[in-house]
Amino acid sequence: MVYRSELDAALTEAAAAAGAEVRDSTALTTLRQQGDTVILQTNRGDTLQARAVVGADGSASRVARYVGVRCAQVDLALEAEVPVDARTADRWRGRLLMEWGPLPGSFGWVFPKGDVCTAGVVAARGNPVALRAYKEDFLERHGLHGPRPSTTPAT
Fold first, then answer.
1. What is the DSSP string of 117-148?
2. For residues 84 and 1, is the Cβ–Cβ distance under 8 A?
3. By CB count within 10 A, which of 18, 45, 68, 107 is most buried?
4. Same-domain check for residues 20 and 41
5. Cα–Cα distance between 108 and 102 in angstroms, integer?
6. Is the same domain home to 79 and 148?
7. Sheet containing 37-42, strands listed edge to edge, beginning at the edge strand earlier in sequence
């Protein structure tokens, strides 16, 4: 398991090494298809052309909307980066956990990352109190309810 920021950096470096031009702080504003070509406009006023576009920016992205992704339900996720001691890190090494949760459509996860475990839960928006209770119970049941979790938004 890796942190998303580390994965993104590694993918960016690999793409650059393969010849891609990296444009930091550049956002897609529009895209359209013209024959076999995709025409993209950016927030910097650039017009780019491509034979293929990979939209790796989430289900609510402009690329997703363009290709017709429509979310029938919007979920809420609560996640914590939980520092763990050596014994707990050892217990989680080489494993991960996914479980169905007690709320409709909910689930929880634990992704170990050495001396930190990323743990979280997700369910349909609408009952944040029940989701917080599920998160607390989930962390407790899996030995991750410690005094020092640093909470982060789920990605």
1. EEEEEEEETT-HHHHHHHHHHHHHHTT---S-
2. no
3. 107
4. yes
5. 10
6. yes
7. 28-34, 37-42, 47-50
Contact by Cβ (8 Å): 119, 139: yes
Beta-carbon contacts of residue 8 (< 8 Å; ≥ 6 apart): none
Give pLDDT < 70 ranges for the chain: 146-155
Which range of residues forms the domain containing residue 24?
4-66
Look up the pTM and report it. 0.69
CATH number at residue 43: 3.50.50.60
∠ at Cα 151 (149, 7), nearest 5°?
Answer: 105
**Tell me: the pLDDT tens digits for 35-53?**
999 999 999 999 999 998 8
Residue 70 CB-density burial (10 A; 0-12 exposed, 13-18 middle, 19+ buried)? exposed
